[in-house]
Amino acid sequence: QQQVKQSPQSLIVQKGGISIINCAYENTAFDYFPWYQQFPGKGPALLIAIRPDVSEKKEGRFTISFNKSAKQFSLHIMDSQPGDSATYFCAAGIGAGSYQLTFGKGTKLSVIP
Amino acid sequence: DSGVTQTPKHLITATGQRVTLRCSPRSGDLSVYWYQQSLDQGLQFLIQYYNGEERAKGNILERFSAQQFPDLHSELNLSSLELGDSALYFCASSVATGHATGELFFGEGSRLTVL
After folding, report:
1. Angle at B41 between CA B98 and CA B90, to 5 degrees
2. Is A4 on the interface with B (CB under 8 A)?
């Protein structure tokens, strides 16, 4: 069964701290791993994505770490800011033919001043 | 603003009824996806259309159906509604299917409440 397990369900981080969200997958056919950010009342929006040929991708304060052998990937948010407070979803997809993504259940991040 | 438009934003109806949710994809996007978001199940893929044809099916109930029209807008039809169908329904679009950027652009969703 195609599943993506995400943890923690919720996370509270002090402003300036590091937020870490973890995901694990089962299907080795997945070849695309995006993270989506969702603010209340809005749809999810792509934050950053990685393919399994690299172990890390960084965009500003956001970094994806990818461990192919462990079938795990994680999102690190450095210098977390109150504006980062949102729900974060990891996802996995198989690129050929369709981008039907399998999403994790989400992590609600609260960054407190 | 993602460029994906969904209507209605909110819908309240009774069990047993039928509703239609509408989605207009971003200009130029050929693929439309429907997702259901509930508190306990997260974002569940329902169905994908590409240029008018069904491309992939996920956990879509038989009571639900969708189509994509020649102008590329899509409709999701939900019938014989049950309390458990209450959820946020998202439409997303992408440039194409296959090895494109992979980015899905989501609308703001249609919140369905079944009483």
Report:
1. 50
2. no
Start-end of H helices in A25-100: none
Letter string b/e over residues B16-38, b meaning 16 or more CB atoms within 10 A of that residue's CB = eeebebebbbbeebbbbbbbbbe
Residues present in chain B in total:
115
For A69, list phi and psi in degrees, rounded to 5. -65, -35
Say if B45 is an interface residue toward chain A (CB within 8 Å). yes
Residue B111: both structure tokens together: 């919140």
With b for 16 or more beta-carbon neighbours within 10 A and e for fewer, the B89-107 pattern comes to bbbbbbbebeeeebebbbb
The reply to whether B75 touches chain A by the CB within 8 Å rule is: no
CB contact under 8 A, A43 and B4: yes
Q: What is the pLDDT along chain A (113 residues), one digit of tens a residue?
A: 458 999 999 999 999 999 999 999 999 988 889 999 999 999 999 999 998 889 999 999 999 999 999 999 999 999 999 999 999 999 998 765 456 788 999 999 999 99
Q: Which chain A positions have a beta carbon within 8 Å of B92's beta carbon?
A: 43
Q: Does A95 touch chain B (CB under 8 A)?
A: yes
Output phi, psi for B62, to 5 deg. -65, -25
